[in-house]
Design a protein that fits this description.
Number of strands: 11
Strand content: over 45%
Length: 126
Amino acid sequence: QVHLVESGGGLVQAGVSLTLACVASGDVSSIWTLGWFREAPRKNREFVAAIDWRDGSTSYPPNLEKGRFTISRDNAKNTLYLQIHALTPEESAMYYCERSSYIDLVAHTQGHVHEWGQGTQVTVSS
């Protein structure tokens, strides 16, 4: 199993950029795919981004604004990142880091989910 801990959220002003981090520990050799999803009041769980831990290839859902999110990783630090650019109130949500076996390109989700962290809250004020 892998333990995931998110950080970097907070109360921020609209227009700024924010970088979230997710540190993985435990059986890190079992990591194939890490990604982010978010949950906001009155909204369903929403896939944000995912990355192949081995080759660094990335995936983003087509329904989100192009260029809003950038996912990256640092294998040496066992850390996943999510950059959120030019924040708007629509980005306010609890952001979770999640481990899975693959990226489902049809459903725009992570497939065979194993676990996720406690989340980090992002609140954007106007």
